[in-house]
Amino acid sequence: MLIIPEKVSYLANLQCTDCGSIYSADKVHTFCPDCQSPLLVNYDLNAARQHVDRDEIHRRQKGMWRWHELLPVRESQNMVTLGEGDTALLRLPHVGKSLGLTHLFVKEESSNPTGSFKARGLSAAISKAKELGIQKVIIPTAGNAGGAMAAYAARANMQALIYMPKDTPNANIVESRIAGAEVILVDGIISDAAGMAGETARKDGWFDVSTFKEPYRMEGKKVMGYELAEAFNWELPDVIIYPTGGGTGLVGMWKAFEELEQLGWLNNAKRPRMVSVQAEGCAPVVQAFEKKATFCDFWVNAKTIASGLRVPKSFADHLILANLYESNGTAIAVSDTSITEAQKELAKAEGIFAAPEGAATLAALKELIKQKWIQPDERVVIFNTGSGLKYLDQQN
Ligand SMILES: *Cc1c(COP(=O)(O)O)cnc(C)c1O
Ligand SMILES: [Zn+2]
Asked: Does the C-beta of 116 come closer than 6 Å to ligand 1?
């Protein structure tokens, strides 16, 4: 049983990542109306530092919501949970050995509800939407976010409307419809779906939970950063390799590290180098990183088997890039062929049937070792963000 102490959340307010304007976290907000930039969630970390104990959190019942003081929901009855979070951090002994790495790990996100880490973000977003009295949610999605939204919306008794490209993996269409969501298949990619969803949202009063167009999905995904810190005994690994579409997890984990530092919970100040992995057929972050740009150009003709990476321009592109620069990280594009090979290797050598997006992080790791960007004794975490089982119609 979850024992909720007096203060459920130290939620303070929302802040624009561009102009710094403050918005109430107790009213419905999307993004900054002045700058069209994402809003980040602030907490009263000074108070939390005094009253919240990291070791007490460690002893709680497993799951994302054991971090509720640092999550945006004020009343525990609004937490919509399906058991997300606290995924395994597994060593990869065989792959590690063949690559000459002594400390290689995978964060195994495929065990989340709905088979991907999107569950974390949607659990947080739907919970906060419930708290704010929202009843109709809409999303454009490359697949897994739609499936996750459908499940959490069902659980929260909300109406769900989903726009998906028509070549989205069948599992995502089926899982959304079975949970009662209406699914509209779009002749195009996620940016086309986003345009249509945005228009319907404005016209018919749906709340748009697109990546970074509401502040709370990132709050769910940031918990991956807390879990990593805890698993490494309140230090952080040297390198994090993350498959980047919208960048929620990358930006979220960086925010988590910042918060942990302010809470005084980290044993040292050393931050990981963050690596953004994209597919060669859709690599706007890599292209921008190589030009040292602060924003991405829209990627034309995005094409890759890793549907979660088929994002031609993230709404938070400047935040992703800022995190890469600040962490001394890098960005790297891998081919669909190398993704498929890495997927087979992970399954054969370690028994993990990864989503193509997850496999992409292993493909990138190999490239970074070749470039000597990673040293043999560094602690490296790759991310398997979803289950390979959701992509069977694209597999043989
Ligand atoms: C959405 C998705 C990604 C990309 O995640 P972001 O945090 O939006 O960058 C990666 N892998 C899978 C399986 C996904 O569904
Ligand atoms: Zn602003």
From this structure: yes
Query: What separation in Å is there between the alpha carbon of 335 and the centre of ligand 1?
Result: 17
Q: Please report which ligand is nearest the Cα atom of 20.
A: 2
Cβ 386 under 6 angstroms from ligand 1: yes
pLDDT surpassing 80 at residue 395: no
Phi/psi for 87 (5° steps) reads -75, 160
pLDDT digits (tens, 9 = 90+) for 154-195: 999 999 999 999 989 999 999 999 999 999 999 988 889 999
Is residue 280 a contact partner of residue 329, using CB atoms and an 8 Å limit?
A: no
**389, 134 Cβ separation under 8 angstroms:** no
Q: Which atom of ligand 1 is nearest to the CA of 245?
A: 9
CA distance 377 to 238: 10
Q: What stretches of 16-117 show up as alpha helix (H) in DSSP?
A: 45-51, 54-59, 93-99
Give the pLDDT score at 144. Answer: 96
Structure confidence at residue 3 (pLDDT): 57
Give the tokens for residue 236. 């952080």
* DSSP strand pairing (22-23 vs 239-243): unpaired
Q: Say yes or no to pLDDT of 394 above 80.
A: no
* C-alpha 280 to ligand 2 mean position (Å): 32
DSSP-derived letter for residue 388 is G
User: Could you tell me if the CB of 110 is within 6 A of ligand 1?
Assistant: no
357: part of which helix (H) or strand (E)?
helix 356-370
Question: Is residue 85 within 6 Å of ligand 1 at its C-beta?
Answer: no
Q: Residue 312: CB within 6 Å of ligand 1?
A: no
d(CA 370, CA 99): 10
